[in-house]
Structure prediction request, 650 residues.
Amino acid sequence: MTPHNVPREGAPANPTAAALQARFGDAIRRVDVVWGETTVYVARERLLEIVRWLHDDPEQQYDYLSDVTAVEYRDPERALEVVWHLRSLPRRRFLRLKVELPRGTALEVESVWPVYRGADWLERECYDMFGIRFTGHPDLRRILMWEQYREGYPLRKDFPLRGRFSRAEQLRQALAANPEARYSMEELSIADAFADLPDEMRQRLKSGARTGE
Amino acid sequence: MATTRRTVDVALATTGLDERGRPVRTPLVTDASGSAIALEEPPMLEPELGGEHMLINIGPQHPATHGVLRLVLELDGETVVRCIPHVGYLHCGFEKIGEYRQYNQIIPWTDREDYLNSIGNNVAFALGAERLFGIEITPRCTVLRVIAAELSRIISHLVWLGTTCIDIGAFTPFLWSFQERENVYKLLESWVGARLTTSATRVGGMAADIPDGWMDGLRAFINNFSKTIDEVDRMLTRNGIWVGRTVGLGTMTAEEAANYGLSGPMLRASGVDYDVRKDFPYLEYETYDFDVPVGTNGDVYDRYLVRMEELRQSVLILRQAADRLPDGPVNTDDHRVVLPPKSKAMSDMESMIHHFKQVMEGPRPPVGETYVAVESPKGEKGYYMVSDGTSKPVRWRIRPPSFVNLSAIPKMVEGHLLSDVIAVNASIDIVMGEIDR
Prediction:
């Protein structure tokens, strides 16, 4: 991953890039090699198909997903990019895939979760921080921010460093939050046992009142 | 609900590696003929009673969660039916803050994410930034960084060892490992002036060269440390309680482990010999002679064995690095990124311009992007940086190994007992600072 004396431009591309171009033609928009790392820009619609092929093809064997993330540039005209870092452990190759999400289009891209289970939390984080929806993800919820977080997506460039709300408002919301609601009556099967709970507790859960803890 | 049986039917490991670098395994308990005897099975749990499931909440303030991890567990009796982890309690927005900082100003933030591996993170970040700037570091700096990274691996594994022992119920190895850790911190303190938050590297070099006599301290540490590892090894590796609490727990097969994106000891315990230092070498690791320990069962016990062997291999690397440390400058003489000497900045016009530009604007890398991964004690730690030609990155992304490793915890604990959740969680070696960033 850190070859010595690699020029900024003109280093040889990962052979996978040529194989992708031969197989997927127009779906491969562009291939860049910067500092010896190959970046392949692919069409948004065919992402999952391409990733699946990279994973399954015996000549490629990209069996390891290092990272899923996104980049928003300071230029407000420039498209957001979703970035996948893939590795082929048997072949010791490294490949960066990118999908451009132009401004004005829906921030949506296919999830690679069906191919790599490791994409689960990485995609959730990307959704949490950038608001990019990964279609086909089984459980796309916020992960680092709390589920009631209303201020938006923190890593977007239009999100101020200190957050949108004042400190006082942030504190007020934190104090007003209902911790009982986060015991996920919906998400866990204890919901089945709701009828068996003590009367007083049921009332409290229903009303969403705070418990005073 | 099927219960999970924990039997020790495979031959258990001793330390030591065969010629292919895999742990040598000999039976723990043998009968007269020398073949392995299965340890006594724990009594079967009560069969399904058809009762209610119970919901329990571990953390975020619980000593066994190693920080502020919260696990919501649905139990059937004592068996975990479902595990839902919640993270984010320590989220500080490091990546966002990084977009408002110059490259050298980000280095103190890297201390604070995986705070057990702070000097290793400094090294990783500096490597990434140097790739982005396109500069080469000096031979002395390369070796010093290897020493830093390996010392930091030792610290991190020692904390893992100590806390895991506490979680599983052994107290003594905790004291031994924390005593050794203190010795490493003394070394670090005499080198960079700080123990935990080292900020030891700069883009293009190090904050400081090692002081006189430091290498003697390192050699003394290496010699003593091997003895400590052997002591812990004698205490735990063939200890019946330790084996009973760790073997067959939280297993991941090789395919699953790679598919879930696990890395580091978690991945290698499952039998995948992926180590960034070997497969995508940096800092001239390809010139060091060391082995990558690999497990076979992918359970908590194998993770323990892999980490113990990594400690030994780190000592090996440290010894080689100490022998080859060359003389010469630590920082590159590229004054686009490294400040010129103060005396020259006051007398030489060009140096003064460099000094002024660096202090007022900060060094500017060319437009580009890079993903630099290193083998941190937790696994593959990657820094992805995108530059648009200004002195601050457009995007600074941390690829957190323990975040991805932790995401597999539901898979590893479901079907096991509640008490085993603690052992599995400990075996992941999480640092919440890195997970939440």
Strands of chain B lie at 13-17, 23-25, 54-58, 70-76, 79-86, 201-202, 205-206, 368-376, 379-387, 395-399. Residues 164 and 426 of chain B are 5 Å apart (CA to CA). Chain B touches chain A through 62 residues (CB under 8 Å). The radius of gyration of chain B is 23 Å.
